[in-house]
Design a protein that fits this description.
Helices cover about 10% and strands about 70% of the residues. It has about 180 residues and is mostly beta strands.
Length: about 180
């Protein structure tokens, strides 16, 4: 059911998008890769994070996005945990010159569905998930109206198995707008 609500919201946003079309409006897709930091009860782990985002800018400054991110995997003393998530949200962006030109700063906020799969050698595996607000910020450079690079920091705090996990990713993003 949760999947259907997220997809329905994104589909509705895409259907009404042409009515709000303005300078800088259009679809985008972006790939991100970098580092994730997972922190729970004083334990910190780092791994490679990667993901994909796609969405629609209603103008040069405001849009909607959907994403999938693999936050990474960590192992310690026979316990292995893997974390990933997907979600939808709103993105904001301010270029220093024209829409999608030159240096910019941006941010995002939305709802993420985060999954944790854990296994203990010899005992099996368990899974849990959580819906939480995610926040992010970025700085970058748009080479033209179609291509941009950014440094992004995103943060989510899912609650799984009764504990809150702090997940922070720092990634390099490549964005293509169409």
């Amino acid at each position: 059911m949760k999947h259907h609500v997220l997809l329905a919201g994104l589909a509705a946003a895409f259907m009404v998008a042409p009515a709000f079309a303005a300078e800088g409006a259009g679809g985008f897709i972006r790939a991100e890769a970098g580092n994730s930091n997972l922190s729970i009860d004083g334990y910190d782990g780092n791994d490679t994070a990667y993901g994909v985002r796609g969405g629609y800018f209603f103008n040069g400054n405001v849009g909607v996005e959907a994403f999938y991110t693999n936050f990474g995997k960590d192992s310690d003393s026979g316990l292995t945990a893997e974390l990933d998530g997907y979600g939808v949200g709103i993105v904001g962006k301010k270029n220093m010159t024209a829409a999608h030109q030159g240096f910019f700063v941006g941010g995002r906020v939305g709802v993420a569905h985060v999954n944790l799969d854990a296994s203990l050698a010899g005992f099996g595996s368990v899974s849990d998930s959580s819906n939480r607000v995610y926040l992010g910020g970025e700085i970058g450079y748009d080479f033209n109206e179609n291509i941009g690079l950014s440094l992004d920091v995103n943060h989510v705090r899912p609650q799984v198995f009764g504990d809150t996990i702090r997940v922070t990713t720092a990634t390099l993003g490549f964005e293509y707008r169409f």
